[in-house]
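Posting for a labmate who doesn't have an account.
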Amino acid sequence: MKIHFVGHASIVAECSDMSILMDPWLSGKIFNNSWTLRPEPVLDPALLDRIGYLWISHEHPDHCHFPTLASFPDSFKQRITILFQTRDSAKMLAAFKGLGYQRFRLLPHREIVPLTDEPTSTRGTKLYCYHAGLMDSALAVIDDQQVMLNANDARISTSECRLILKDVRHVDVLLNQFSLAAYAGFEPPERYLPERALQVLRNVSEVHRALDAKVTIPFASFIYFSSEDNKYVNPFANTVSDAYNYLQRQDQTAAVLYPGDDYEVGSAHDSSQALQRYAALPGWDE
């Protein structure tokens, strides 16, 4: 299995018999212009022809970005199958149909389902969807003996990790959010936000440990807070280097990808170039 990192929370999982695009947000601002992508995503147009499925984890616009979904060619919309959890599916499928998508498949909670016309087949890619919280979901992609779990920002607890591990048996690579996304606004922020940011890193490590993951890819936090109302959060946000270094200190393996990079599941990965590219980005204040 190969993972193509597009940007923020979006990847393409290339399996032996199919490819899945996940949670694409390719341009523009969201949440009333208060989140901006950093850096810009990279989606190789050549990948579109190989994509057979599009998974949307939940309704938040950094995962379900309607302008991006609308921007894909009509031929793509007519050909691919959108994957979504069974919860709250009626309104979501209606929205997708309004954008021109025609094929859909709903994923039940905690069931391993094959993407094949032969339900009893032991070969081919299989999916496992875990419904988390009130609206989120995580997706495991199982290709032969390799398992990739996309936890995005589902905030899976360690007890939920044990359920997932019981179902999928092992996790080769975990994708997990590594920085701040929500804040209740307690004052002063310099008192509360550093601990909140550290807790996110602790959670990344705890989930890695609870799933016995071989590798964690930090993602789903490649934004900066870009309005007058929330820019004060930026100095306290974790960088991808913070996440990488924290996991290293816990003797846990991390792989850092820059938009456009690939990761071969089960192979050694050198994160140094990606880390240098992130470090060279203009600061949020610039």
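Reply:
Got it, the structure tokens are right above this. The longest strand covers residues 136-143.
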